């Protein structure tokens, strides 16, 4: 009897170890320009039941940071490296610019493939496309349906004068006239349905919603009869159709029997674009700024591997951390020499963050479109120079047509200096640099150390070859101009 028990106990331990070692499927969702206050679990006016359920059953991040605009954040997600070290720290990659995420970097999907994952991407790339080697299927993704640029029409898929929608390496004209969220969702469902569940799946879903232009089928806007401001009404509908898409995709995971084995990471790429009806209340500022409203992203994790659930996690996390964290969750080999920190154990066990400091951004370009320099060191946040385009505190524009104004008080260089204690003053009301000159000096010295690794911003003028290539491709953006 004792021998039988020992054999049974040994088998049970082996079985449990095998289960714990199983690689999770990973769904990485990015919501474009989604604000801190644009989800139901923070704002009851927003209709986001699927997002709310995932967030409340998982780990909501209270201090997960991103960059102030799109391309820098996405470069951080994919590479685990601060954008100021890759030359992508300034604004976003334009359609006519011959720039892309440096090709010498090992990025997240490539590392996932090394770990045995099937890798698929659906949605917005925005990391350059001037050369085929810059594009998703050449950088580790088995398949790709999406667009290379930003701010395109949701139905016509035009941006900057040309069509931008691609199915792997082919221009996807067949989706012209169809709302992107619908067919992005359908493709995700197809991938899940046809996937061999014995192989781990990595699905990267950077949705178009809720970036401008403000467009959504009427029925979603009509779900907000209490919102008098037309722009906010349609923006809110764009959030709800995104929520519906996530609900449909998670239901497909359940139908396939993969849901319990799936880890979901959801994050915004920057704060809300205030001029296009997004909202970051009660945080200060918005997209294009280094204020908390521009960089403190709506984010959560849900699903497989999390030991502590239904909590809010306050530890510091930066966009560069998601690559090593997801690799760790996948049981993969880490990429050496990156800025990201593996936070997987900290998150899944609700332990203190391994991060104590980070750079919000270091922008050396002369055109003032976003903040110049800022750093977080423990509870302290130091600005050097211009904080960014948007300033102030704005409630949702439900009952007013008022539009936030640009912050036009631009200054060059590292002045003025501004210091805040984010633990005591998370909404950045009280500037206290004169009270703590030693803190200012210490963090300034750290920023100057980081500047030793700064790569000058790669922000070239428009390349006429880009237009020539698009015209030869029948009026659609296409690689081949660098």
From TrEMBL:
Q: Which cofactor does it need?
A: Ca(2+)
Annotated signal peptide: 1-20
Q: Listed GO molecular functions?
A: metal ion binding; sulfuric ester hydrolase activity
Query: Its domain of life?
Result: Eukaryota
The protein's matches in PANTHER family, at most eight in alphabetical order, are given as: ARYLSULFATASE, RE14504P
Q: Of which family is this protein a member?
A: Belongs to the sulfatase family.
- Which key words are in the record? Calcium, Glycoprotein, Hydrolase, Metal-binding, Signal
All copies of the Sulfatase N-terminal domain together span 24-331
Q: Which organism is it from?
A: Patella caerulea
Q: Does the keyword Hydrolase apply?
A: yes
**Name of the molecule in the record:** Sulfatase N-terminal domain-containing protein
Concerning Pfam families, the annotation shows:
Sulfatase
